[in-house]
Amino acid sequence: MDHRQEDQFEYQLKSALHRQEPPNGFTVRVLARLEPARPEPWPQPWLHLPSLRWALACALGIAVFAGGWMFQQERRRAEGEAARQQVMLALRITGAKMQLAEARVRHLSER
């Protein structure tokens, strides 16, 4: 590149990069784009009602109480079923022992 082309290139570069004032409203448009979009507020005024808070707290308390009561009932039912099975096993063992004793008694009485 010769000297004249370099001068012309520098001139074009300087003219392309020269300082110029922004157009009217440029700053406002840029700041508007930079400002974060605010989400619409979720309607929560009903949560501020004390009576509703109490109602929700009571409902939660009743749900916890009912869940605990149902858990206890299920546990008692399972314990009762286990006890019934143990009694049935004991009765079967007792019945088998009684049959064995009866067979021995018959065997001794036949002699």
Throw out a few tags for this protein.
111 residues; 3 helices; elongated
Sketch the topology as an H/E string, one letter per element: HHH
Radius of gyration, in angstroms, nearest whole number: 47 Å
* Global mean pLDDT: 85
Strand content: under 5%
In short:
It is built from three helices and no strands. The chain is mainly alpha-helical.
Folded structure, characterized:
- With 111 residues, the protein is an all-alpha fold.
- The protein has a domain at 78-111.
- The protein is built from three helices and no strands.
- The longest helix has 61 residues, at 50-110.
- The radius of gyration is 47 Å and the shape is elongated.
- The mean pLDDT is 85.
List the helices and strands and how they pair.
Elements lengths: L2 H14 L9 H9 L15 H61 L1
